[in-house]
């Protein structure tokens, strides 16, 4: 690992402290009085009708399973192979399904579900992995998969019709996901030391987030919000090492589609309004892109390849269009187009640069 490589902003320990188990789950676990014993241990408790539990442990010692179900037509299945693994499923309400499969040493998996018709599955292979899922209300689904050592998933979904598919392959990766409403999230991390934080609140008509990070020590924060419309789509792909991305959009029917590849690159996107789009590709080292939009029906497209390039776009108003293309090193492109107060509409700006040390500035009011 390069001695100059930035470290993730949050350690695994800090991310764990961000998650606070709900009082019901804490009370149930205290009632079972789990302890680190040499022998394997299984505790099962069911109250209600037509519930099913299955537990299997093999090839090790110090494994523990807790399965608690209160209500009707729940199903809980836990299988563990290895040693010192802990699995917990706590289900209250109607027709929940929980599945945990762990193989390795000192892994920890917890599923807490309340409401109706929740579905959660956790699969972990390796050592020291931690995955926790909390779901409330109804009809939410989670699949959490981790392969490697020291990885972390913290997933919380509430309200209805949320879907999450979260995957990590490698070591010391961390993903935290919070969804409120009816959002869909698919995320994948491959490598070591990557950190991903996703927050989505799309109460009315849903929204989609897709994130992939491949490499080491990449960091991404993705937020999407909407209360009246379909939020739209955020798609982010980062490849390489020590890249960072802060991406957020609010409003409705928006699109952000980004690819960042190389070392030490930075993306910052803030889109507020409706029916706007940001699409772009940034390849190389130490490049930066900053875009703000606002208002409605605005479009930004960008492409840059090289090192130490900068793109900064600020758009307000309606029906504004900005396009930037840069090839080379140490180039800068800045576009500012009209404020809402001036009711600017139908403005368009295009910048194309090829070479080294070029600077382009466009301002339209």
UniProtKB/TrEMBL annotation:
Superkingdom of source: Bacteria
Signal peptide span per the entry?
1-38
Magnesium as a keyword of this entry, yes or no, is no
Q: Which GO terms describe its biological process?
A: cell adhesion
User: Which UniProt keywords are given for this protein, alphabetically ordered?
Assistant: Signal
Q: Which GO terms describe its cellular component?
A: pilus
Q: Does the keyword Signal apply?
A: yes
- One Pfam family, please name it: Curlin_rpt
In the record, the note on similarity to other proteins reads: Belongs to the CsgA/CsgB family.
Q: What is this protein called?
A: Curlin
Biological classification of the source:
Bacteria, Pseudomonadati, Pseudomonadota, Gammaproteobacteria, Pseudomonadales
